[in-house]
Amino acid sequence: MIRAAIAALAISLLCLPPEGGSHRTSTGGGLSWLPPSGGSSAAAFADQEWTQWRGPSRNGVVAPAAVPKWPTQWKKAWRVEVGEGYSSPVVAGNRVFVHSRKDPNEIVTAYVLELGHIAWQHQYKADFAKNQYATGMGKAPFATPLVSGERLFTLGGTGILCAWNTRTGAMLWLKDYSSLVDTSKLFTGTAASPLMEGGLLIVQVGSDVKGGQVVALDPATGNEKWTWKGKGPGYASPVAVSVGSSRQIVTMTDGSIEGIDAKSGESLWSVPFPDDWHENIVTPIWTGTHLIVSGTRQGTHAYTLKQAEGKWQATEAWKNPEVAMYMSTPVLSEGVLYGLSAKKKGQVVAIDAASGAVKWMTDGRAADHASILLAGNNVLLMTTAGELIVVKRSPLKYEEEKRYTLADAATWAVPAVLPDALIVRDVSGLMRLVGS
Amino acid sequence: MAAQWTQWRGPNGLGIAPDKNLPTVWSPATPEKPAVNIKWKTEIPGRGHSSPVVWGNRIFLTTSIKGAEVPGKKAPVHLDFSRQPGYVHPDSTDVNFKHALQVVAVDATSGKILWTRTAYDGEMWDDRHRKNTFASSTMAVDEERAYAFFESAGLYAYKHDGTLAWKTSLGGIIKAGLGPGTSPVIYKDLIILQCDQEMGDGSFIVALNRKTGDEVWRASRTNRRSWATPLVIHAGERDELIASGAESVIAYDPATGKELWRSEGTRSHPIPSPVATKGLVFLTAGSQAKVVMAMRPGASGDQKDAIVWRYNKGAAYVPSPIAIGDYLYLVSDTGLMTCIDAITGERKYEGGRPPVPATFFASPVAFDDKILLTSEDGDSFVIKAGPVHEVLATNSVGEPVYASPAIADGTIYIRGDSHLFAITEMGKRQ
């Protein structure tokens, strides 16, 4: 029934004209609220990019030019209600792109970065069957959009993948993977953020019940180039890593870690990483020598990847069951991983990436979840409680330098850190914060 | 009537309280918000995973205070599963520290500690698992005395006013360096203890006279180390004491210690305690293999047919299951719930889960068709009993919890890492 409804979505897209943006302040004609093309305002925003899951480099590292100067406080330049969803905002070309939901539709909106006005918005019907056991969880979208060139890619909770023109909002193509999504058992919805690798768009779709796929598509057409099939997704996002001369897509399923040839989609290696709840949420980290994964019930494990006699092998190098990350992907800096272990209701932790040894760990009850970023000499933790904790990037000890309250509502999304602003999505709204 | 909570999982050992007027929402005070439905909280010194027991206005529980190091003190030599000596569990610890083992009495109205008695203060007989404590056996209490079992360090009976009535030693009880777990059970004028150790040499169940501490009966057994508490049930015309075990499940006459019947064992570590409903008794174990067996008591001899149905998923390593009316509920170590029709073994649901990830050491308790699951993080999830999983509420005491809650006289008692919380409906306040 649900599937029929989704199939019947038949792409009834509602395209709002720019005038539909409710925040228009100018009474003059035309699009006078848009910064003049090529004008000073647009130029100032040209280098403000936060294009995918965990920032421009997909590793949680804030570009040096965007490292904030840590003001006394952050003030709201604007805030708009966007609807449901934990999908993080992305920023490119003076636009903030947000994927959200207002039942029964998923909505893709481009906001003007400076003003918070709607530049364009589309919505499509996506009947989302919430997992009956995930009572504390909101609805999708969960996956963070991806901007590549002039295209924006969104992957909704039910597995609807769309490509959009970032400027005009025109839909370029749509692929519907909702027939693979089943939330009746443990799976709660599509969450892996799309990845661009070697000119291919990589998405991970499916469910524990229906099985999973990693699919590489032509970003221009949506044509599938290769498909890997296996277990359902584990909610982590795929990453592309270089191991020697090999380029691999590494991702988590509901019970394993997978290495996939980035060009061919061929399975290179697979390591069991079982979990009672089918939750392997933390995005894997490749240090150059170690692949590090973590789970709240499994603890943190590191593997080396080697090729012997033409076969790839992932060998466990170390494990540390006392550091057990749930949803928070750590950041890597100078051989040290900074993260949030879920034990004792949240312990901020620094571990040696080569050995797994704990450098320091806080006592507990730090946060349910935190989006973790690296900005210059600081590790940033944006907690679900709406706080931004600025910690000294030091393997020697935990030292808080600043603590700001940025949101009044639960904050699950990764904030976009821009040269002079933070873009923060809380449980229902999106805001631009500027230092003062 | 002032309901009592007289032993591990209450008077009948099933974890079910008759109370109807209990709160389902609570939270301790924070700098921002006043406490909700917390009548009092009292700091309990030391470490102890024993549950509180309640008689009238008094609450009794045990704790252990770590003392001076005893350099060079070693645990007894343990046997591995092939009976080879030299086994050392990687998580075993603390035999080389003295410990004071204490009994604490708390006033149920005020939360004030009425008295503390040090039952034992000295060297330990064996290690404990680093997550276990030397004060993990829940006490038993009757109208006159409260009984504290510290396994190798002995059994102590205190009058309600704190006077020592009697004490006795059952000798060293060694369990692979993992520490105590089983709790005393009251049956008529007896106090019954299941003392399995190592690979079965020297295992026994013993019944002592409650008034004097004198041994009344002792049943030798060959079952290896266990941490489960035996369950007394009524089967047909007689009472049976059901004792879990890896090699065999054995039913004894609780009055005499005579073996009534035995059946296949849990194979996995016998840590969860048995439960019963609808004329059947349920044995579970979760490490390593997951085992659930429904057995029909009342027979005699070697009972291959005692097993009515089996289920090989969903059982926990430490927490016991709970059986209420028509259903048996399993809670895995990570909080996944399974509901099974007690009589037919038909699965009603599996994979019911708390709203946040959680790990469980405390066993569930139930009241008014609600199941209370309390996690290691100190979150209590109120689950609707019945064939459909529904989380009614999530609460927290704000500190880790390993002890199973107790319920008496309209109050839920939750023992956290450092405090005992009394949770009761405080009424609507301005």
Task: Please render the helix and strand layout as text.
The complex is a heterodimer of chains A (436) and B (430).
Chain A: H1 2-7, E1 14-16, H2 40-45, E2 74-81, E3 90-92, E4 95-102, E5 105-112, E6 118-125, E7 146-148, E8 151-155, E9 160-165, E10 171-176, E11 195-197, E12 200-207, E13 211-217, E14 224-230, E15 239-243, E16 246-252, E17 256-261, E18 267-272, E19 285-286, E20 291-295, E21 299-308, E22 311-320, E23 331-333, E24 336-341, E25 347-352, E26 358-361, E27 370-375, E28 378-383, E29 387-392, E30 400-405, E31 416-418, E32 421-425, E33 429-435
Antiparallel strand pairs in A: 1-6, 2-33, 3-4, 4-5, 5-6, 7-8, 8-9, 9-10, 11-12, 12-13, 13-14, 15-16, 16-17, 17-18, 19-20, 20-21, 21-22, 23-24, 24-25, 25-26, 27-28, 28-29, 29-30, 31-32, 32-33
Chain B: E1 16-17, E2 38-43, E3 53-55, E4 58-69, E5 78-79, E6 85-87, E7 92-93, E8 97-107, E9 113-122, E10 128-129, E11 140-141, E12 145-149, E13 155-159, E14 164-168, E15 185-187, E16 190-195, E17 203-209, E18 215-221, E19 231-235, E20 238-243, E21 248-252, E22 259-264, E23 275-277, E24 280-285, E25 291-295, E26 301-302, E27 307-311, E28 322-324, E29 327-331, E30 337-341, E31 347-352, E32 365-367, E33 370-374, E34 379-384, E35 391-396, E36 406-408, E37 411-415, E38 419-424
Parallel strand pairs in B: 1-32, 22-26
Antiparallel strand pairs in B: 2-38, 3-4, 4-8, 5-6, 7-10, 8-9, 11-12, 12-13, 13-14, 15-16, 16-17, 17-18, 19-20, 20-21, 21-22, 23-24, 24-25, 25-27, 28-29, 29-30, 30-31, 32-33, 33-34, 34-35, 36-37, 37-38
Walkthrough of the structure:
- Helices cover 3% and strands 44% of the residues of chain A.
- In chain A, strand 21 (299-308) and strand 22 (311-320) form a beta hairpin.
- In chain A, 52% of the residues are buried.
- Chain A is globular and about 55 Å long.
- Mean pLDDT of chain A is 90; it is low at 1-46.
- Chain A has two helices and 33 strands.
- Chain A has one domain (2-15, 45-62, 71-435): Methylamine Dehydrogenase, Chain H (7 Propeller).
- In chain A, strands 1-6-5-4-3 form a five-stranded antiparallel sheet, with no helix packed on it.
- Chain A is an all-beta fold.
- With 430 residues, chain B is mostly beta strands.
- Chain B has a single domain (16-424), classed as 7 Propeller (Methylamine Dehydrogenase, Chain H), CATH 2.130.10.
- Chain B contains no helices and 38 strands.
- Chain B has a five-stranded mixed sheet, with no helix packed on it. In chain B, strands 19-20-21-22-26 form a five-stranded mixed sheet, with no helix packed on it.
- The interface between A and B is medium-sized, with 19 and 16 residues.
